Structure formats: C-alpha cells, structure tokens
Amino acid sequence: MVTEGTLPRDALRQVEQRLTAAGCPDADFDAAELLRLVLGVDVRLAFAPLTAEQAARLEELTARRADREPLQYLCGSWPFLDFELAVGPGVLCPRADTEVVAETAAGLLKEVPHPKVLDLCAGTGCLGLGVKRFCPDAAVTSLEKSPDALVYLKRNARLPGGLEITPVEGDLFTYWQTLPEGQLDLIVSNPPYLTAAEMAQLQPEVAKEPAMALAAGEDGLAFYRTIAEDYQQALRPGGALALEIGWQQREAVTALLAENGWVDIACQKDYGGNDRAVTARRSCK
Prior knowledge:
alpha/beta, seven-stranded mixed sheet, about 20% strand, peptide chain release factor N(5)-glutamine methyltransferase activity
C-alpha cells in the first residue's frame, strides 16, 4: 500500500507490481500514467515524498485500474492524432487504429473544396475531428445516439486550433431519412461491429466500455448493413464512404457494399497490419 512519505520511484514500483498481479497488460505504462496524474509531472521528474493526499489519490486510482477500469477513463482525457479528447464512462475510448481511418477518410477528399462530412456513431467525435484535422475547410456533422456519449461529443466539439464539428443527437437506423439526396461529400463511421460471440469474450477493460458502442447483433453487421443500404443517396455522385471494420470483417463488409451498388471498394490496413478501413464511392452513373 502506498502511504504518505513514499518516494515517487518506490510508489511507481509498488503500483506496477499490483497492476501486474491484477492482470493489467501494460502495468508499467499504466503505473507511470497514474503517478503522472497524481503528481502533475512525469515520475522521472518527481523527487519529493508523496503527501497524504497524493498517496490516498494514488491508492484510489490503483484500485480502480486493478479492477480493470480503462486507463482512459481514469485520466479523463486521451490523445488522438495531435489533439486531446475528453473521455470517460459511457463513451468508447479513442484508439490508435481509428487514426488510420481518419487519415484514410480525409484522403478521399483531395481536391474537394469545402467538403460536407457526416460522421455516424461519433462517440467522442475522434473520427470527425480527425477528418477536420486533415481537411480544415470541411464542415463536419457528428451523429451520436447515446446520451452518455453525447456529453463527451459536445465537450470535444470545439477544440483548440480551429477543430470544430457540429454534434447532433440521433439514431443511425433512422437518421438517413432526414438527409437530402446528393449533399454530402463523405460519410465516415466507426460503428459497433462486435458479434454476440465476441461480446461474450471481451477483455476486462473493453467490457467496462459501453455495450451500446460495441455490440452489433449476431453477425456484427447490423450497422454496416444499414449504411450500405440506406446512406448512399445522401452522397453526391462520386461521394465517398470510409468505415472502420473489425480485423475479420473485410470480406463481409465489402460484399455488402458491392451488393448495394457501391464502387471503387478498397481496404486499408492499420499499424498492426490488420484490415481496418474500408472505403467506397457512390457511383457516378
């Protein structure tokens, strides 16, 4: 137990040992982040013994992380690309793989002036904000159904450096009915895509994230199916679609798009070499 008077490096070792025993996969990184939260500086720059308040705070955070509460929730914010997002219970944690989707999506807007973008199942807004980061003149609308996640989407809707999106509350399964035909240049989404079997086998940290942001029915395709069938007409001819997928879903998602008349279907891999971003366009015919 970390107590008042413990030196920061000793506290770091204690926390890492406890997190390792609890099964946290990156216990050394997590321990350093918890110390940074408590001390306000990197532990390598901290030399004064912990105060009673600091020790109590570190004990609380260590217990929560040992219970496998996501580190992102404990931090209250998390980096995505080169900006910081508010994050907490009730919203999906931003992940590095989604950065690949944002960059891929933005690449579909080359030479499109002032593009209009719709981000479906927005969560923290990371994907829409990522597109905006690469395409500063884009007008991005980000749709989210969950009231809990919408809180974070609204917090992140206006960030330093001109990163601004428009948060909207709505349901992907019906929102398409409100969209005029041919007005959008890009639709981007990281929808729920876990199958029922995958939901039953979640790692402890992921199981703490909202099921609403993860579960997509027996086959994991419920959201992709609606996007493929109902959202194409909202794009201008030649308008683009970029979807984050699970690493085993490329064939199923690309088949859905092909069956519904999408063209130029392709797939981009993530940093780990897994299939991650499926792209397509509305036919110009």
